[in-house]
Specification:
Length: 103
């Protein structure tokens, strides 16, 4: 399960940072009429978010998560700052799972 956790963690941080940059780009676009940054960042964030979804599916299947939990983790990449929180909670849950299985 550790092999699926690393890509998830990396993508959670990358998607979170890109989402924050996208929020700045949207403010520039709709607040100041400067659309060039959002035209670059939006497709990059979208592609990375798709990779994030694949990483969540991979980790969720290996960890045998329930579908509602997996969907909640997937939504973590859509709200600014939420992906950082979700990444920390998921990491704690995954790292605690082997300890619970050994007990």
């Amino acid at each position: 399960m550790e092999s699926a956790l690393k890509p998830f963690r990396v993508l959670a941080y990358v998607v979170g940072v890109m989402l924050l940059i996208l929020c700045v780009a949207m403010v520039l676009r709709y607040g100041f009429g400067e659309a060039s940054l959002s035209k670059i960042i939006a497709p990059i964030h979208g592609g990375l978010y798709m990779l994030y979804l694949v990483a969540v599916m991979n980790l969720g299947m290996k960890a045998r998560w329930a579908w509602p939990y997996m969907l909640g983790v997937m939504l973590g990449g859509t709200v600014p700052f939420l992906s950082f929180y979700v990444e920390r909670r998921v990491t704690q849950r995954v790292q605690a799972a082997p300890a619970a299985a050994e007990a």
